[in-house]
């Protein structure tokens, strides 16, 4: 099973997303967004940015 993004409303009424690995562990959390649609667009931006991304030691 692949990982998944979860979009949810936090206690402050803002929308956020978290990326969960196949084992259910949270591996990334997004910033807060005013709307659910904006949070979904945030997940799409992460997917685009991660495609082909390299790992760089700093």
Automatic annotation (TrEMBL):
Domain DUF1508: 10-57
SUPFAM superfamilies for this protein: YegP-like
InterPro entries from the UniProt entry: DUF1508 (IPR010879), UPF0339_domain (IPR051141), YegP-like_sf (IPR036913)
Domain of life of the source: Bacteria
Protein name (record): DUF1508 domain-containing protein
Species of origin: Nocardioides jejuensis
């Amino acid at each position: 099973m692949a990982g998944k993004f979860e979009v949810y409303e936090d206690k402050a009424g803002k929308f956020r997303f978290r990326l969960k690995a196949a084992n259910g562990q949270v591996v990334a959390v997004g910033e807060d967004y005013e709307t659910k649609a904006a949070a979904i667009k945030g997940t799409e931006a992460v997917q685009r940015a991660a495609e082909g991304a390299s790992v760089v030691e700093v």
